[in-house]
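Retro notes - structure team

What went well: the batch runner handled both jobs without manual restarts.
What didn't: labels got mixed up in the shared folder, which is why I'm recording both outputs here explicitly, each with its sequence directly above its tokens.

Job 1
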Amino acid sequence: MATLSRFSTSTIVASNGLVPWLAAQGPLAYSPVEPPARDYFFQYSWILPGIFDPKVNLREHRYFGKYRKNSAKFLFDFWGDARKGCAAALQQYCELGHFSDSEVRAPLGAYHHVRKYYDTAGSLLIQHGSYQWISREDQPHIEQGEVLLYRGVGQGAVFRCLQFEPDDLTAANREIWRRYLHLQAEMLSDSVLSFNTIHDPRQAQRDRGPAPWNVAG
């Protein structure tokens, strides 16, 4: 099994809040407003070894989990701008997550970022060390905290939204709902656990990188 990180990867803050960063405290608690001083903290095979397949040589450099550093160039560009003090102006939307017995809300940070290769304006979504770049055209409501999802579950042709009030459930179903929320909250409470719950760690040895969102954009 991959070794554990010597850094905290807990994302929980006071009052059951969840940060969208790698951690709520310690060296990995960096954000675009307070970026890390060194690229060392982007070297995931050293700071997040628990997300990699045991076959991966953890002594190799895996910046943002990518096999080739240049594959994550746009992320280095983004963090370089943050170090220059541009992060505050770049921010579009940022909100802590939250969990309780009645709901779980995932944290999300969204920042303006023009990808130099494409010369296209867009947003960089950040959650627990995972990144996805999206064009402004695809996500016009980011600044209101709304992310549009795309159909892709099974063979379904449309999204289906189930709406209900937990208080309307039977006692048995309410307990099932409570346990489900507890599992979701636990998954979001730690960056390593979040990745390993959603993805097969064997994928982290491949070029796509370890991220709930495609790290290459």
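Job 2
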Amino acid sequence: MPAIQSYFIEPIWKQFCALLPERKVEHPLVCHKSRIPDRMVFEKLLRVLVFSCAYRRIADEECPESTLHRRRDEWIDPGLMEALREIALSAYDRTIGLQPAYVAVDGCITKAPCGGEKAGRSPVDRGKQGIKRPTAVDANGIPIGGITDPANRHDSPLLIPTLEYASASAGGLPEGASVHLGRGYDSFITRERLKERGLNAEIAENGKPAPLRVGNRWVVERTNSWRTPIRSFCGVRSARVRS
């Protein structure tokens, strides 16, 4: 059974294919190994996203794991993956509709054993390398924006940059939108910054019990748990040597 039905993949591929730059191949002997078609690699990367699995689980003899990594990096560098994200988000908004009147924001820490441009000492992993990914989602848990920072950054200073990115992606947050946050954001400064932007703060207060499903905060927890295995698509690569 396919990860995604062909009638979903095909229109996405056509839009993504239009973004790919023209590639000229010049080989003096004209006997090099043929390049694996972009269409095949694209569909396998979609499988990685859908199943949240390792690349080696999707790779096969026709398309090895090293090719998936290289082609992914080749598409991330010029911003093609970010452009595809915006296309998909816009299509979802037109067909189903985003609900930015209720926004939930939370960060999660993931490992970065090979370091990288955004890696930092993780406070929850004995100081090993890690990154923090604050993410903003709408009422249904659809990611509308997120940033990447070192794992040792506190959540609060990252809130406004995350919301600004989310606002740009979603075409702006409506006046009076509710922003649902965890206890890590509970501060006077956070409330003031949200008030300045016409946003209502719904923050779990320190010292008071707050079950996960209080308010709309749980949707971002669900989204983060799904995105964690596929962190390599966030647009910031680690410093590992390419295969």
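One thing worth noting from job 2: The two ends are 30 Å apart (CA to CA).
We'll revisit the folder naming next retro.
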